[in-house]
Fold this sequence. Notes:
Strand content: 25-35%
Radius of gyration: 20 Å
Number of strands: 10
Low-confidence stretches: 258-263
Helix content: 25-40%
CATH architecture of the domain at 8-144 and 196-230: 3-Layer(aba) Sandwich
CATH class of the domain at 8-144 and 196-230: Alpha Beta
Shape: globular
Structural class: alpha+beta
Oligomer: single chain
Amino acid sequence: MAGLMEPIKIKSLNKQEAVDFVQRYHYSQIMPRLSKHYLGFYEDTILCGVVTLGWGTQPLQTIQKIFYNHKLKSEDYLEIGKMCFLPEKNNTKNFGSMVLSLLVKWMRTNTDCLFLYTLADGIMGKCGYVYQASNFQYIGKFKTSVYMDNATGEKIHPRSAKQLCIENAMYENKEKIFWLTDNFCKYKGIDKINGLMFRYIIPLNKKSKKILKSYSKYNRLPYPKDIDLVFEKRISNGKFIKIEQPNFNMKIFNHNFQKGSKE
């Protein structure tokens, strides 16, 4: 029948194929370092989407913090590091949900993981609607902080601010600085921005369903919406004001690591 979408197929990619696609189509071109799988989603021979699977910067702490009554290990889950599609597929109804459904099936067949975990980048205005449409369990939010260079709009992740921290320490006459100070940021024309990250997870077998069900606090959480997004800017030490969503320039790399590294 005319108008039906081609069936989507999933194939493993080499790292460079995945990186090239992500850096062309994703809003953030910086790749996670702890990636284990690079997966391509095809319609016929056309690569329409890429998903990378791995872990964040603290794999063991992440899963143990979520499931604090169980001694789970990092190999018990994988996290979506990057997920991006061809621009036209972002406006194709249900494409993201079909990709996630295929991804879950792939994980059940090709891994021994209990869970697929992911984050929606609230500081970029994303609530995770594609995960909500795919029946992921929302398991809470946490506050995150980044910096923004006022001159360029560059979004600077704290882990990418090593050189700025060295300069900040010299500026404050201190041995070490881990977070850029308010005085130094004003001197450099840099804002500290707070936002939210939203956690989602999906169990992959009966054991993991039972584990997730045992944490009743996760079962009562309503899905976040646009109204739940929060953005704050530091105005002085320990003081923030609410602001509109920042307009980051994601193509500037004056302070962040080079493309292909971890944000």
